[in-house]
Amino acid sequence: MASIKPSVPKGTRDFSPTEMVKRNYIFDTIKSVFRKYGYQQIETPTMENSSTLTGKYGDEGDKLIFKILNSGDFLAKVNPEKLTTHNSQLITSDISEKALRYDLTVPFARYVVQHQNEITFPFKRFQVQPVWRADRPQRGRYREFYQCDADVVGSDSLLNEAEFIMIYDEALGKLGLKDFSIKINNRKILSGIAQIIDKADNIIDLTVAIDKLDKIGLDGVIKELLERGFTQADIEKIKPVILLEGSNTEKLQSLREALADSETGLKGCDEIETVFNYIKSCPLQTAKLELDITLARGLNYYTGAIFEVKTNEVNMGSIGGGGRYDDLTGMFGLKGLTGVGISFGADRIYDVMEELNLFPAAANQSTQVLICNFDAAGEQYGLPLLQQLRRQNINAELYPAGAKIKKQMEYANNKNIPYTVVIGSDEMQSGLLSFKNMTTGNQEKLTAEEIVEKLVDNRATI
Amino acid sequence: MASIKPSVPKGTRDFSPTEMVKRNYIFDTIKSVFRKYGYQQIETPTMENSSTLTGKYGDEGDKLIFKILNSGDFLAKVNPEKLTTHNSQLITSDISEKALRYDLTVPFARYVVQHQNEITFPFKRFQVQPVWRADRPQRGRYREFYQCDADVVGSDSLLNEAEFIMIYDEALGKLGLKDFSIKINNRKILSGIAQIIDKADNIIDLTVAIDKLDKIGLDGVIKELLERGFTQADIEKIKPVILLEGSNTEKLQSLREALADSETGLKGCDEIETVFNYIKSCPLQTAKLELDITLARGLNYYTGAIFEVKTNEVNMGSIGGGGRYDDLTGMFGLKGLTGVGISFGADRIYDVMEELNLFPAAANQSTQVLICNFDAAGEQYGLPLLQQLRRQNINAELYPAGAKIKKQMEYANNKNIPYTVVIGSDEMQSGLLSFKNMTTGNQEKLTAEEIVEKLVDNRATI
């Protein structure tokens, strides 16, 4: 067979042992916090019926859904005349009935509707699974990537919003981030702003422009608003809202004044204030909580709170986001179920942690000790020690077959194994084994029992 | 929108919170044992290039590979004349360049070859990921299911074989299985049997027949051997081998006598004996280790040891298996890399554990305590307690918004939450909260501090 260098499809990745340890560290930390707040894990199939996914992500999104070719004689069902048109779009649904999960939200909505009679509401679920998008791959954008979502459906209590803020605070704090902001806005405030200038229908244009304040500044936003048909008078009216300053309390106060004529706008202010009051009872440990009315992500489906999380330590896009939606399951015929959810951007969090060197050293160490040996006698001598270590739940390896000691040490180094034990003929005679700390290079002669004791103690202090 | 009841594709499954907790329990246990023995986790992409998978699983296997339809105008590349043949097979490779992982072995081989310069050999890796097969779904057979594999490549030491036996013993023992057998055979012994009757070329026919001994008995096997062209004389010669009895040592002794004329056969006996000697140094805790020369699974690629694991407590197919292969990576151009690996059948292990009621009660409990309340005042009163509990790493929830107490208790019951705290007006006045054990129904009045203490102590004793 010609040996073509094997590769993975464009936009997909292998994860090496070192990367897996770090990724598991992130996912395990986030999952443990989800569980602490009462969220329960579910998993849905990689493949969904095409009818479940199609039409849920807009025309652009639909094009990015990976479709599964029907098994067997997939052309059998296709009308020959249709085939001669050579029109891909026309025959797609004839030759493909299933597709790969595009996000976790639509499968979750499908799950809730399908299992509504088994579910206890409010239903607090989390889900950590890969999704696939036929996007053009580029730096930091993959065709296969993990999403990490938590949602609660069937409860309109704002305690849920507050708890998601606490979850972000706790999870990212546990991961070692020291300076990050959780930005909060409310769709009703944005609606209020549109209402006070009598342009409720133009709310999308308005928010798209305001959303760019960070990037293009006030002048840029004004220019864009004018281009989008807003008048100079409109702009004068909303300028103070856009340029809101001061503490969260001060901002809320100014907003209430500006939105005095909009019932919806004031409702939005009330909601945000309630969330702030919950947080006052349960103060955050690390995160800064910021009211940011330029935040407008996901506006087409969010109906209440909108969240976005950014690190202030590294230049990076948002590392999390979410919001409240009033009709998640309506698309599958179950109306009126409100929900709120958040998402962690695991790939970006990984990059932030790499840049800030936040992964614990232990996250890189799976095996704690390697027992090196020169021959069958050394191997035989080492086996009881190996077993004692494992009985104590110490991850341990015995190098198989007598390779050169240099090779065995290289093996330990490459696997970041922190300790080695060398068993040579002297060691077997005296019962004193060479125990080496691979980080410091320190070496001492110890009995097997002393080595076990040392590694057990060592583990206890990590 | 017409509300068609949403569903998942045939042969795929949703996993509910209860199922996920149990599945995680199985996977986490197995992973922790893999790590203890120095195995490191990798993950490969869900999609592989079709060229990586095609031709690796035989014609029948190839048909069961799920193929991904190319994105965009997939027909553009297809010759119109070819299309008019209406021949699905002919155009498959034109409209599909990627496919879903069919097992973990071929992607692992691809990974090893692709990353050979970054890998430290012997490379001990484990991998737990779903695979997809377009098989006809039936009871216990799914189109999407998890595989759970560990392999070591680049070491011919039989210590690896012995350690896999220890891994099975430890992992399945930890999961609570009390009576199970690890069966071991060696391809070289099967070759030896074929050699002593001068039918080396008919080894497949021979082993297919012998493999059925359990099911069809000796008479059945003899009938089948005769049908497959073996002579009465052949059968007389191999009968004692098939009917091997006694302890492993006795069986080995008989085999050595029967295979005295086959160098390969004796080599197989030596290998098995070496593995048994390793196990004598590190005795198994639970498993029975049985030499079983009727074991012939995966014969087309195994070259040395062959494993199979069966529970003796429940009637169920094999719950694990594996073996040594001499040329895993040859298909991708890297010759001469030997390896040995095993697999756990997670779905079957799940069913065994369900039947034997082996899942720990705690595996069903994510949230430890629910704080129930009647109104905003109760909610406000409960928040500091909620926070204290979480600070102590107790999974805790406060029921959002004042629902009826019956509904809150139902919520606790349905989620298997073992404790509840009720905060009513009396409780707020006295500072003594109603703390209820949901299993026993016992109720007592405790301060918030006492509740925290009790739950922390309780966790420590689990």
Automatic annotation (TrEMBL), chains A, B:
It comes from the Bacteria. PROSITE patterns: AA_TRNA_LIGASE_II (PS50862). CDD domains: HisRS-like_core, HisRS_anticodon. Its EC number is 6.1.1.21. One of its GO terms (molecular function) is histidine-tRNA ligase activity. The keyword Transferase does not apply. Belongs to the class-II aminoacyl-tRNA synthetase family. Homodimer. This is Histidine--tRNA ligase. It comes from Mucilaginibacter pocheonensis.
